[in-house]
Design the sequence.
């Protein structure tokens, strides 16, 4: 059964293809293909534990969709954390997702290098600073810095920002520890027009 995988010589866990998984996971694969234009190799790996694959998808979809914060911005936060984690897989995956959701090439390039000099609003830069502080230590979100967040974001936005930053301490470590190979780019994937970060609620 596992002889039909797309594994490479570095892959620690074989990748499971659509015809190798249960009908439930087959539906998940189909949904991911429709949403992203490709089934990410992380899901082809975690498919060995079906309940966890479903849980990962159920967690990531609302986390990175448009809500209090725009999906493209949260994808860029994920990309920034992936840079800090030195995860080529996650940088590639979330850079692509950010583009599909409306981030510009200039924004994606900046978040991979110097976001402070990139085409972002001051609130967006503050969010990236928040992610970097969390990466170093949650203690760096002190009262003074949190007051800055409260001045720029609504409570739901702060929750989404913190949750996204924390989540991408986990996922880049997961894919790098298992040496999951880069997912091939989609031949033709979904795209959405550019926009601005969701404004603070009043």
Sequence:
């Amino acid at each position: 059964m596992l002889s039909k995988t797309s594994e490479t010589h570095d892959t620690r866990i074989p990748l499971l293809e659509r015809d190798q998984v249960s009908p439930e996971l087959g539906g998940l694969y189909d949904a991911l293909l429709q949403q992203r234009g490709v089934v990410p190799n992380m899901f082809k790996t975690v498919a060995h534990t079906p309940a966890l694959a479903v849980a990962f998808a159920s967690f990531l979809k609302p986390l990175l969709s448009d809500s209090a914060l725009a999906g493209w911005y949260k994808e860029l936060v994920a990309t920034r954390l992936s840079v800090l984690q030195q995860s080529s897989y996650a940088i590639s995956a979330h850079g692509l997702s950010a583009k599909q959701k409306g981030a510009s090439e200039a924004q994606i390039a900046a978040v991979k290098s110097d976001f402070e000099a990139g085409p972002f609003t001051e609130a967006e830069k503050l969010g990236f600073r928040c992610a970097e502080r969390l990466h170093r230590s949650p203690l760096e979100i002190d009262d003074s810095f949190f007051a800055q967040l409260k001045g720029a974001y609504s409570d739901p936005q702060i929750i989404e920002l913190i949750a996204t930053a924390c989540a991408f301490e986990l996922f880049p470590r997961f894919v790098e520890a298992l040496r999951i190979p880069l997912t091939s780019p989609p031949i033709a994937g979904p795209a959405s027009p550019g926009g601005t970060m969701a404004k603070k609620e009043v």
